[in-house]
Specification:
Blueprint (H helix, E strand, L loop, with lengths): L16 H5 L7 H9 L20 E3 L4 E3 L2 H8 L2 H11 L6 H7 L9 H5 L1
Antiparallel strand pairs: 1-2
Length: 118
Amino acid sequence: MGRCPTRKVKKRRLSHKTARRDKFEVKGDDLVYTELRKPETETKPLELSEDLPGMGQFYCLHCDRYFCNVSVRDDHFKTKKHKKRVKLMNGPAPHSQLDADLAAGMGMPDNGPKLMAA
């Protein structure tokens, strides 16, 4: 038995989801962490923006995401992804660019407490 000569192998299509995820620029973990540590008096009210979903009014600070309405945002608050993110942001500070530079040997040398204080 042979194969039908008219049948071709289906081409694998690229996922459009990866391009969609990168549509809105996401802040790094260290920036979100510092923003969460700011006092309530320093936080600004959300501005109206036509470019963002829901005119930029429905925002999750932990995940740095905008939503189209309140119900979608509230559903997001119940997800496993959001809960993990909240736990991550309530823990110790994530690595920053300064930590990465020090690990790569590009930052100030750590010569001990005596030499750093002088």
